[in-house]
Each structure stands twice: as C-alpha cells, then as structure tokens.
Amino acid sequence: MNTALARAALPTARAIRWAPAAAVSGVLLAAAVLARATDGPANMLVATAAAGLAATVVSGLYDPAASLLAAVPVSVMQRRLLRLTLLGLPALAVWSVFDRLTVAQVSGPGPLLALTACGVAVALWGPPRNAVLLGAATPVVLCALPRVVPSAAFSDVVAWWLTDPWWVLLGATLLCIAGRRR
Amino acid sequence: MSTTTVRPRATVSAPASVTRALVLAEARRMLLNPVPWICLALTTWALWTVRPEPGEWPGSSYEGITPAVAPLLFGISVAVAVPFHRARHDVAPAAPVPEAHRTLARLLAALPFVAVAAAYAVLVAWRERDLGGLWLGMEPGRTTEAFHTTAELAQPVALALVAVALGAAVGRRTSRLVALVPALFVLWFVVSVYWLFGMPSVTPFSVIQVQPLNLTVGPASADPLSFPSDWLLVGHPHTSEGWQRQWVSEALAWWHNVWLLGIATLLIAVAWPRSGRRALLAAGAVLAVAGLVGQQVVIP
To answer: Where are chain B's structural domains?
Structure first.
C-alpha cells in the first residue's frame, strides 16, 4: 500500500497546479519584505497569509481524475493525505519564512494548521459537488468574519483559530477522522 | 435564392445583436452570483465603522475609509472570474461567435459592478459629509473637516475596473476554478494593508493608494509654527522621526488612477484572445508608465 502511495507521489505532484500556489507565496513574501522594511504591525497581514496559504493547500484536494482513480488500490483518504502533504510542506516552508520576516502578536504554525484542518473538514463533510470549493473558502471566511461581524462574542469565537489554534486544530482533525470514508 | 438575399443583412447585424444577447445573458449570471453582494455588504459595514475618535493617529479615519473597499473588489473579481473560467471549456471554441466577441461581451457584462463601485464612491462622499468631515493633522496644523478629493473618490471606480480585469485574467488563465479563491483573496487583502505602501518611493506602485503621505519636514525640536500655515502636521508623540507633513494631493490621486487604468488594460490583455492582445499590451504599458511617471513627478 505504501509502495503504491510512494509511486503515486510523483504523478500527483505533476498533476497539481503549482502556479496559483507560487503566485500566492510570491505575493505574501513580497508583502513580508515590505512589512519588514516599513517596520509596521503585521497582525492583519499574518492572518491574511495564514488564510491564503491554508486555502491554497485545501484547494489542492481538487482532483479532476478522482472518479478514474477510484479503482486503484489506494483509498481516497490516502490520496487526499498525499495531496495535503505535497502542498502542505511547501506552504509550511513559506509560512516559516513569512513568520520570520514579520513582527506580529501571533507566531508559529498554529493558525495555518488550524485553518487548513478546518478547510479540510468542510471539504470532507460538504456537498460532494462543491466540497473542495467550500473547503477552500472556509479559511477565507474565518479570516474575514471577525473583522466585520459586529458581535464581539461571535467574533471572539470565530477568531479561535488565531487565539487558540491548537484546540481548533484538534477539533477539526477529529472531524476529518470521522469523515475519512466520505 | 431567398436565403442568398437575406444572408448579407443577417451577417451585418448578427455580431452586434449576438454580442448584445451575450452581454445580457452573462450580466444576468454575474449579477445573480451572491458573492459580490455579500462582499458589498461587508464593505459598507466596514465603511460605517470608520469614524473619527479622540486620541487616534492623526488621519486614521481618513486613511481607514479607502481600504474598506477591498472586500467588494474581491467579490467583483470572483464573480467575473467564473464566466471567464467557463470559456476554457472545450465547447467554447466551437461556438459560432468569435472568441473576441465573447470576451468583449463578458467584459461589458461586468460593467454593472463598476456602476456599483461608483455608487459606493458616492456613498463614501455622503458619509464623510454626514460625519461632518474627517480629522487630519495635529495642532498647529490640523483640520476636522477633511473630505476625500474627487480624484480619491474616483479610485474605487478605477479599482473596480482592475477587479474586473483581474477576475477576467485569472479566470481565463487558471485551469482550476477552486484555486482562484485563495489567489484573489491574498491579492486583494494584501494590497489593502495600506501602510505597506506608505513610503513615498513605494506609493506610486500601490494598488489601493491611501493618502495622506507622511513626509518628514523637520526634527522634533523644530518650531511647528515656522512651517507654512496650510500644512497639516503630525509630530511627537505620534512619530519618532520629528515633524511630518500629512500631504494630500489630488494630482497624485489622478495619476494613480491612470496607473490603475494601465494595470486594468494589461490584465485585460492577458484575458484577451491572441488577435488584438498586442494593442492592449501597448496601451496598458503606456498608461501604466505614464501613471507611474506622473506620480513620481508630483510627489515632493
């Protein structure tokens, strides 16, 4: 099984569209360099980066050949994990560089992992036709909502991914495990 | 024989009527997309939360109003990207209408969003007057009745054109629709972090340009009364670099709008079919360079 997965890594990496992820990373790193030169508070920038990178990783779950690959001896969840690993590792590397360049209240990979897990959970449990699209939109919505929702209590809850990312990661991971056969 | 007599008239009128029909169909689809309307609500809400507060950074409210438009621009780009992405399907090349006409029809169909941005700009102007003006500067160079200039209020309209062009370019050239969401989100929300582009050398390259520019005019020990009386000033405790002039320029904003039109034209060239692309690239480059040079000349 693992051999099959290892053999699938290269074709999967070739099938993934890297250009949007590269564009997102380039914009974020350029913004981080500008932020470092300006020496300004980068909290909003960090939240945007976490949401953008998480959405990019989740969008990588979209596999146009999914129905074709249903017959191969690698489960759909394993193929998803392979895609998440292939996109997640570069995203973590970009996040790490971004994190070092900017000065913000939040640091560490927690927010990125929490938002990615939330997106994956929505992609697993969402309606099959738009599941990945909804999953990719989830980090964006979670990032934007606390800024615009008038209720402070609601904003605090939505912003848990930023303030208590590890608990959110745990909850979302449990949801992913529960939906692994979907 | 009757068909041969009818055909010439039909070929003359067909392109215009077909383009018109396409515009109407695409406009209806784009306007039914809920994303731009939800984003418009967020933008309007963000605009409403901006109001001058005692103790704020001088100019905070004046600066805060402009980037509030970012969610609307994101929504416009998403709504426009969907139909342009549809053009990638294999059935589209076999359509009886040339690709250039279809592209033009989609762009024209997106114009209602530009009208929405214009209405938003009018709302901003009304809101500022409703608040009695915004605050800029600190004593002795201060005003509590600052209003954005016409050129600054025109910026959301130029930005809406950029949003339409960006949605068209990204939608047409990206193979996966799902990848558009993070890309457009990052692009629009990064450029809305306006202080990144606050340095005078970087400001001309900004997308959402926020004035005033803070130009250092003297050390902290300088007598602020020695500066021209019409200067808006900011100094200690708000700055660590001595006295700064809060500089608002309508000319800078107009040249920035020219730069935005250049970017929009270049992005449309990316979405446009091969024939005619060079002309758009040339026009976009000329506008963008003119906008950049104009801004550089205007900034003191």
So the answer is: 18-298
Contact A24 B182 (CB under 8 A): yes
Would you call B196 and A59 a contact, using CB atoms and an 8 Å cutoff?
Answer: no
Closest chain A residue to B178, measured at CA: A133
At residue B93 the predicted structure's pLDDT band, cuts being 50, 70 and 90, is: low
Complex prediction ipTM: 0.84
Q: How many folded domains does chain A comprise?
A: 1
Residue B155 near residue B252 (C-beta atoms within 8 A): no
Kindly give the pairing relationship between strand B233-234 and strand B243-247: antiparallel
Cα nearest neighbour of A60 on chain B: B179
Across the interface, of B42, B46, B195, the residue whose CB is closest to A40 is: B195
SS3 at position B139: coil
pLDDT in tens, B245-258: 888 999 999 999 99
Per DSSP, the residues of A33-95 read HHHHHHT---HHHHHHHHHHHHHHHHHTT--TTHHHHTTSSS-HHHHHHHHHHHHHHHHHHHH
What's the pTM value of the predicted model, to 2 decimals?
0.88
Are the beta carbons of B42 and A148 separated by less than 8 Å? yes
Q: What is the pLDDT of residues B17-72, one digit of tens each?
A: 888 898 999 999 999 999 999 999 999 998 998 888 887 788 888 988 999 999 99
Residue ranges making up the domain that contains A12: 2-178
